[in-house]
């Protein structure tokens, strides 16, 4: 799918299934209906006969028919909506709610607002988060802030237990006046940070971090590396600061503490995708953000079994 400039109705207020399908069709195929399997535009709509149980919105691909393969499809085939028994209008409402909620919206809230079961709402939210993942097309460049935080359980018991025990480390990279990329990592070490930074940051970039020793071993990989000395209560020195990336962590933690309350280690990466998606589209309104989300759902499928791991 590609974002469209077509004037669309308020997605969150669409309750009619025919209007929901038409809106999705305009988003997915702005240049005309195309077969999701072979890409051919030599297709036609099947008109149901009177009394037939054929559902509305079914198309047939002539090229697939010649190859004697499955040639029928609808606008939901090849997206997160495929094989879903939930009304498409409810899907669109859920996507709109997630795109408009700055600190996220819980599955319990979606379950209450849409009148569906909690299990269904939980699965819908995870499918939407999965579809919000956007593969990086190129490495970040310019001034890059890097920092790490910890998400998860509280310290339990006494003794020499670390305050980070039961927590999952998260590393975030922010391009000044640009986008953020967040990663759940097993540990915060020089090896882990090197892998994340080299894969996502261009060597010509200028890196800014705190005084963590692990970053010092990576200085030679970038044009420059400057640090802000938090241990000396220094937070800004000219244009040397990590306030931008810390602001991203602030939004994430307010979402975790105030909305979700607990995020498991296994699912944290999907929540990071959700928060990254909203932050990277912060300069557009909620309606436009929802359209961008739907426009990126092409080829995104997540089964219930896969969502549990």
Would you write up a description of this structure?
- The protein is of the alpha/beta class and 309 residues long.
- 37% of the residues lie in helices and 13% in strands.
- The chain contains eleven helices and eight strands.
- The protein has helices at residues 17-28, 62-66, 88-100, 107-114, 118-132, 190-200, 213-216, 243-260, 268-280, 286-295, 304-307; strands at residues 43-45, 59-61, 72-73, 143-152, 167-175, 180-184, 206-209, 224-227.
- The strands form two sheets. It has a five-stranded mixed β-sheet, sandwiched between helices. The protein has a three-stranded antiparallel β-sheet with strand order 1-2-3.
- Strand 7, helix 7 and strand 8 (224-227) form a beta-alpha-beta unit.
- Helix 3 (88-100) crosses helix 10, helix 4 (107-114) crosses helix 5 and helix 5 (118-132) packs across helix 9 (268-280).
- The longest helix is centred in the C-terminal third of the chain and has 18 residues, at 243-260.
- The protein is elongated.
- The two termini are 27 Å apart.
- Mean pLDDT is 88; it is low at 1-7.
List the helices and strands and how they pair.
Elements (H helix, E strand, L loop, with lengths): L16 H12 L14 E3 L13 E3 H5 L5 E2 L14 H13 L6 H8 L3 H15 L10 E10 L14 E9 L4 E5 L5 H11 L5 E4 L3 H4 L7 E4 L15 H18 L7 H13 L5 H10 L8 H4 L2
Parallel strand pairs: 4-7, 7-8
Antiparallel strand pairs: 1-2, 2-3, 4-5, 5-6
């Amino acid at each position: 799918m590609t974002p469209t400039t077509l004037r669309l109705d308020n997605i969150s207020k669409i309750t009619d299934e025919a209007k929901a399908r038409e809106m999705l069709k305009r988003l997915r195929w702005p240049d005309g209906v195309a077969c999701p399997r072979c890409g051919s535009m030599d297709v036609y709509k099947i008109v149901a006969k009177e009394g037939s149980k054929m559902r509305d919105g079914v198309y047939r691909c002539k090229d697939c028919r010649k190859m004697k393969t499955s040639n029928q499809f609808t606008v939901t085939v090849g997206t997160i909506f495929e094989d879903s028994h939930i009304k498409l209008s409810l899907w669109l409402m859920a996507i709109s709610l997630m795109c408009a909620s700055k600190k996220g919206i819980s599955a319990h809230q979606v379950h209450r607002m849409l009148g569906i079961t909690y299990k269904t709402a939980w699965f819908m939210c995870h499918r939407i988060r999965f579809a919000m993942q956007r593969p990086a097309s190129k490495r970040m460049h310019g001034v890059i802030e890097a920092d790490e935080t910890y998400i998860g359980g509280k310290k339990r018991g006494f003794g020499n237990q670390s305050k980070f025990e039961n927590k999952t480390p998260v590393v975030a990279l922010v391009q000044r006046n640009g986008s953020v990329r967040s990663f759940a990592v097993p540990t915060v070490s020089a090896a882990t940070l090197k892998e994340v930074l080299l894969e996502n940051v261009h060597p010509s970039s200028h890196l800014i971090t705190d005084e963590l020793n692990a970053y010092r071993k990576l200085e030679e990989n970038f044009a420059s590396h400057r640090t802000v000395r938090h241990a000396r209560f220094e937070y800004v020195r000219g244009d040397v600061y990590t306030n931008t990336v810390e602001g991203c962590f602030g939004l994430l933690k307010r979402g975790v503490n105030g909305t979700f309350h607990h995020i498991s280690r296994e699912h944290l990466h999907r929540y990071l995708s959700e928060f990254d998606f909203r932050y990277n589209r912060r300069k557009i309104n909620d309606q436009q953000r929802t359209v961008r989300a739907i426009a990126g759902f092409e080829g995104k499928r997540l089964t219930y079994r896969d969502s549990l791991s």
